[in-house]
Specification:
Elements lengths: L4 H24 L8 E7 L10 E4 L2 E12 L4 E8 L11 E6 L5 E6 L12 E3 L7 H31 L1 H29 L1 H25 L1 H24 L4 H7 L2 H22 L11
Length: 291
């Protein structure tokens, strides 16, 4: 069976249109083959809200805005919301608000409540006043920045005057000179640390080693010799004392007996008697002849 050219052209045209439709819906964020649940949101105003704006729950995208319609009877805007997950149940005390982002776009923010009664598909939700967006929160900051700008201008003017002051240039030159001198000093210190200090430390180490050797020698030689001599001297002195205390030695006899004392006392008494006799009878001992 031969397919005609007209059929091929028509077939590819339909495929192109379907692909184009699906692509446009995909770029808009629409879920073509996934319908989910639909709800009507009645608002006083929808600043920044547009078709394909996100429906967010805890920051997560759970749906999108399908349409925006104005109701002349109630003077409200009716927003059609498409929630992708059919199993997502929204309590009736939930809070649904519109929040403006920093760039001016808006999203529908869903905050779950605690009620056991839930909205059903195509139910109407009445939204409170729009929640303050990032731009409204940024207004106090912008006001503070605007009040700060004159002070910043004054500060910049003062800095310009200070920079153009001649004394500042002189101070910078002095600082530059001081930095040069400091660099020279640091270089000299580095040279000293790398050349002279190691030599001095080497000499100190040698002297310390010599002192250690000398201490070891004194400890091993002279001190031991002195101790040996002292021990020998004490031994000899002890031996001498023992001999002196012995009753058989001459010194021992002198120390331990009274015979020598008695003899000396008798000798002294005899001498004293002789002297007295000479005084009384000098002619008996001294003969004087006169020629």
């Amino acid at each position: 069976m031969k397919i005609s050219s007209e059929f091929k052209i028509g077939f590819w045209a339909i495929v192109t249109l379907v692909t184009l439709y699906l692509g446009i819906n995909f770029l808009k964020g629409k879920q073509t083959f996934r319908q989910g649940q639909f709800f009507y949101l009645v608002c006083d105003k929808v600043d920044g809200l547009a078709i394909s704006s996100h429906v967010k729950l805890h920051g997560l995208k759970v749906g999108m805005v399908r349409s925006l319609d104005y109701d002349e009877k109630t003077d409200h805007v009716v927003v059609t919301l498409n929630v992708y997950d059919k199993s997502l149940r929204i309590p009736k005390d939930s809070r649904v608000s519109i929040q403006t982002e920093l760039l001016g776009t808006a999203n529908v923010i869903l905050e779950m409540g605690d009620s056991t009664a839930y909205y059903q598909n195509w139910d109407t939700i009445y939204a409170p006043a729009a929640a303050p967006g990032l731009m409204e929160k940024a207004d106090p900051i912008i006001t503070s920045v605007e009040a700060l700008m004159p002070k910043v201008d004054t500060l910049i003017t003062g800095i310009n005057v200070l920079v153009n002051e001649s004394k500042l240039h002189e101070s910078l030159l002095d600082i530059n000179t001081l930095t040069t001198h400091l660099n020279t000093t640091v270089n000299e210190l580095n040279r000293l640390l790398h050349k002279d200090v190691p030599a001095v430390m080497s000499n100190v180490k040698d002297a310390t080693a010599n002192l250690d050797t000398l201490s070891v020698q004194l400890k091993e030689a002279e001190v031991q010799q002195i101790i040996a001599n002292a021990n020998r001297t004490l031994s000899e002195a002890n031996e001498m004392l023992q001999k002196m205390q012995s009753p058989d030695s001459s010194v021992g006899k002198l120390l331990n007996t009274t015979e020598l004392h008695d003899q000396l006392s008798q000798t002294v008494a005899d001498i004293d008697s002789l002297i007295n006799d000479i005084k009384e009878n000098p002619k008996r001992y001294i003969h004087i002849k006169v020629f």
